[in-house]
Write a structure and sequence with these properties.
Blueprint: H1 7-15, E1 19-24, H2 52-55, H3 61-76, E2 80-85, H4 95-102, E3 111-118, H5 125-133, E4 139-147, H6 151-156, H7 163-174, E5 179-187, H8 194-204, E6 211-216, E7 219-220, H9 224-230, H10 239-252, E8 258-261, E9 271-273, H11 280-294, H12 302-309
Parallel strand pairs: 1-2, 2-3, 3-4, 4-5, 5-6, 6-8
Antiparallel strand pairs: 7-9
Helix pairs in contact: 4-5, 8-10, 10-11
């Protein structure tokens, strides 16, 4: 049984075979670390904890793509790829810079998709015009980092944008029918109860989204969150708590939302806690077992929730 609508299932339905995402570092910065909004960044953020390929800023995009493709062909037997502009804020630049970066994918015939991870306050109609233009040849995705709908939490984690900013960006982007809009959500943010996290699920269920990517709040080195963790100021979710909240969240959202990821991981050289997030396959098995145990599935409560909201 398909308990949730996985990204892999979507890709196989769309392309007829496995498609692998290539994590890229295009050399962008972020307004939350360069002094435009802040120099501190989000309390949890250290891009070095991402994948090897996204860390390799010294390599050109062409070199990163070539190496990542070669690895994915050997490791995963993949033949089609999505170029995923992952590190930092990938619409944070002038239009000519963005055009130059994105157009690199035209040099690779096996790339079938363009995915862009960015902040909701770094998008406008001109940038969307550019991104939309790629949809004539590629499947195009934009993933906005939201993390939570609660502005109090957004202030606490130093996001320096509001939920209203996200909603505006999601609605503006969704009007471009060929761009698929995703949201990044973190479960276990400081001071958020299960009820608050499920409120995030309910609110997201009313928005024009295509997909959701889940992160478990984790601590990596060289971040303010590491200091807070070491000082005992924050509590992280246990494995059982995360699985419980995740499944409850999935029950609330529409069954049509594609689940880009169920659990985050991190470079073990940087990960402080919780260590269990890197046991990804075991956690995924546990999530499926819990779905089965509860006799539930993604969207089970959505209809009753949406009727109640109406």
């Amino acid at each position: 049984m398909n308990y949730y609508y996985s990204f892999n299932k979507y890709l196989k339905e769309t392309f007829g075979e496995r498609v692998h995402r290539l994590s890229l570092n295009a050399g962008f910065s972020c307004p939350n670390i360069d002094g435009t909004l802040s120099k501190k960044g989000c309390i949890f953020c250290n891009n070095k904890a991402f994948s090897y390929f996204s860390n390799n800023r010294s390599s050109s995009l062409e070199e990163q793509i070539t190496k990542a493709m070669d690895y994915a062909r050997r490791r995963y037997k993949a033949n089609k790829f999505i170029a995923y502009f992952q590190s930092f804020t990938n619409t944070y630049g002038d239009i000519n810079t963005l055009k130059e970066k994105y157009r690199v994918i035209n040099n690779f015939k096996d790339i079938v998709g363009l995915a862009i991870s960015t902040r909701c306050d770094c998008i406008d109609e001109e940038k969307l015009d550019l991104i939309e233009s790629f949809s004539r040849k590629y499947t195009v995705f934009i993933e906005y980092g939201l993390q939570t709908v609660h502005d109090k939490t957004l202030r606490y984690i130093n996001r320096n944008h509001t939920f209203s900013d996200f909603k505006k960006a999601a609605e503006m982007t969704s009007r471009r029918k060929t761009i698929k809009v995703g949201a990044h959500i973190i479960l276990g943010l400081p001071n958020e109860s299960k009820e608050m996290m499920l409120t995030t699920a309910e609110v997201l269920s009313t928005l024009p989204l295509w997909g959701i990517k889940f992160h478990c709040l984790h601590v990596v080195k060289q971040t303010p969150l590491e200091n807070m963790y070491n000082e005992g100021k924050i509590k992280l979710l246990s494995e059982d708590e995360y699985i419980d909240i995740l499944i409850s969240f999935l029950e609330v959202i529409p069954k049509e939302y594609v689940i880009l990821r169920l659990i985050s991981d991190a470079d073990r050289r940087f990960l402080v806690a919780p260590l269990w997030i890197n046991e990804k396959q075991r956690i995924l098995r546990r999530i499926e077992e819990e779905f089965k145990k509860r006799s539930t599935y993604q969207g089970r409560l959505y209809e009753s929730f949406s009727c109640k909201s109406a």
